[in-house]
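Residues pack. One example:


***
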Amino acid sequence: MGSIKVMDEVLANKIAAGEVVEKMMNIVKELVENSIDAKSDEIKIELIDSGTKMIKVSDNGVGMDKDDAILAFSRHATSKLSSLSDLFNISSLGFRGEALPSIASISKVVLKTANENRGTLIKIEGGHIEEVISSDLQKGTDITVTSIFYNTPVRLKYIKNLYTELAHITDYISKMALSYPNIKFTLINNDKVLLKTDGNSNLLKVIYEIYGSDVSKKMVEITGENDDYLISGYISYPEMARSNRNSITLLVNGRVIRNNEIIKSITDSYHTYIPKDKFPIAILNIDVDPILVDVNIHPTKMDVKFSKMDVLKELIKETISKKIKELLLIPEATVRSNFSVNEVINNNKINEEKYEKPDSEKVLVKDLTEKFQENFSSKIIEEYEINEEKVIYGEEEAKKEQLKLIEDSSNNSSKMKKIIPRGIVYETYIIAENEDGMYIIDQHAAAERINYEKCLKSLSNPNIEKISLLIPISLEFPPNEYIIIKNNLLLLESIGFEIDEFGSNTFVVRSHPTFIKDERTKEDILKIFEIVATKEDFDKEKFIDHTAATMACRMSIKGNDYINLEEAEYLLDTLSKCDNPFNCPHGRPTIITYTKYDLEKMFKRVMD
């Protein structure tokens, strides 16, 4: 007898579940897509403990009769494909016929469905149908999933914390609401409503429900088309750029997808308008003949292949770039009151009187210190992507040269010998010297190292000093980011924030750590919150280090910011007191050294 056998259907479904069901969001996704395919205009998702204990999806769609309801839990049973040609012309969200049997094989399912007022109730446990009876449901379908992974316990080890699971689900439902503004979505977790849309087909209103009023006011509609594609949606003004790509929603014929090439095309359209490490908020729907796309790439159906990708990317860039130029060429007029104008004039007069006759020849150390503290806190710099190939000195060679700069003090700490600035080139690099040699210092990298250690010390202090705000700052986030931030409020409080929840998806900040300066308070706080929102699992030390490095970037003077020699000397003196004066927090060198011997060798004053 041969050793090859046909697998039992339940076993096959459990194997398929490994691809279809990775987390709670996958179950919600498959059930919601079925509801949309059933022509529902109202879908309700109810969760207990982020779906780990219960997921229930209810809709008012066409429902199923008894025979179809039973057959729906058979593998590869679908109403959406009838022939091979249909596979190349898919217009529905589901089509594989794997989702329901896969979900049922690793959970307990109760299905209620009604077609033409005839209701059916089916109970399934571990893939086996236990009971089929009549139901009192009048219209649509209710499906309740419990005891998820009860018969495959190893899968439970891959389930992350409840906030992470809930954030994934909320993010997905938010994207579906953006994809189908004509459908009323309600998402509830532990009896708390997290998201609710009214289904009135107004996409901008859905954007408001998800991102809040500040974002929705800065969104602009776009449309574009060519012979193959029609694109539509909303993009944000450049000033609304975010630090992650989670706020870019891509839709193809109503299907939420992932595609890095399209995301890159969108961000490239903002070239020179936003920093290279920022991403706009965008909702882009692509309408295309189904024959030009292949959604049959992965069981999740989120990866899509386009047959004319270059044509699509060109259309996206052209449409978005044109709209951005229109926004910038036609600025919105601002009407100021007389009081505002007078206030500006008076402030300018005060500043002119205060700095009318500066003594540029004699700069007091106290004044210089204050000036640099102001410069370090108020000037924004660009963040650099560090590549080992960009480092001029190799690690070992750099260490050898840097050792020449070290001298032991009485407390065994390492300090640089004093170096004297002699000039500045390209308004970026300080040329300096001491008895050991000549030095080239990157003024931004040096300032960044100083501010990094300052921020790190402040953030690591268990008794961190705070500044109370006279007017609290309100920050609104999309539901999925709000959930992650809420899960990490204790972390934020431990570094000096006092935060209250306020209304839906909004936090009120009442105090902040002292290293955040008044000039850019809201922007700096928002940046820290965005760092939290992009992380699911936290190591506090890594978070503090990342935050310190990011804030140091924002606080520091840039290349091409003019400083004079007195200011350069203060900068170098301060740098010499750092624990590590030789690298910025991103790993770039602050100092390049030419010893006296190196110079004499280059000019052939000495020979090997």
Q: What stands out?
A: The longest strand covers residues 466-476.
